[in-house]
Amino acid sequence: MNFNQLSQMEQLDYLSDLLANEIFNFGTHPYNELLPGQQLTVKQGFHESLKDENIQVTDFLIQAVENEFTASPMTSFLLEYVALNDTNHERTDETKAINAALKIVKLSNQKFIVPGGYIIPKGYTLYHPTFGYFGFKGDGKPYTPAGGKKALQSILTEGGLLDFTDSVWWMEKI
Predict the structure, then answer these.
(1) Cα separation, 62 vs 12, whole angstroms
(2) CA-CA distance, 80 to 50, in Å (whole number)?
(3) Mean of per-residue pLDDT scores for the chain
(4) Closest Cα to residue 24, out of 11, 13, 38?
(5) β-pair type (132-136, 123-128)
(6) pLDDT of 143-153, one tens digit each?
(7) What is the number of other CB atoms lying within 10 angstroms of the CB of residue 164?
(8) How far out from the chain centre does Cα 126 lie?
(9) CA 114 → CA 105, 119, 120, 145, 165, distances in Å?
(10) Which side of the chain, N or C, has fewer Cβ within a 10 Å radius?
(11) Which of 1, 3, 19 is nearest to 11 (CA)?
(12) What is the dihedral of CA 42, 22, 59, 81, to 10 degrees?
């Protein structure tokens, strides 16, 4: 099985199974009820599974996980895994420069043009002074993670996005 050739839903199911298997090593308790040492073991086991199965973790995959599993620790586990194991994907100088200029901003009453009108998204997003508001292709709006400002801060703390291949930039409608 090649994880990277699976559909997005199959990838999400597979990652969910990997994490569930690690949690079930400690019984049937939910992750948030495990002891701190057990939670650490779950995270390390999940990271080992990703490495053993040569799963390529992309920004697009992380965003899909965050959208699908809002109450799961999987998003933070994937972000940490990328930060610890980013040997196959070096950020280019251009990507580093874009990441360095990104700021976290709160959307409030900004209008963005979409087919048939405009949207007014709420929440925190990433903003670049030249390119505008960050979003993922196909998402239809600026990126506003379920984890809010804290999720965006963790992205920036880990060096920012790996690349901007699956991204679009949104400009505010004036």
Answers:
(1) 10
(2) 12
(3) 88
(4) 38
(5) antiparallel
(6) 888 778 988 88
(7) 19
(8) 13
(9) 21, 7, 10, 20, 21
(10) C
(11) 3
(12) 40
pLDDT higher than 70, residue 67: yes
Q: Say how far apart CA 26 and CA 32 lie, in whole Å.
A: 12
Give 113-121's long-range contacts (Cβ < 8 A, gap of 24+). Answer: 113/173, 114/140, 114/141, 118/173
What dihedral do alpha carbons 105, 110, 114, 118 form, nearest 10°? 150
Hey, what are 43's tokens? 């995270």
Q: What separation in angstroms does the CA of 110 have from each of 58, 124, 156, 168?
A: 29, 12, 23, 17
Give how far Cα 83 sits from Cα of 78, 154, 165, Å. Answer: 9, 10, 19
pLDDT of 169 higher than 80: yes
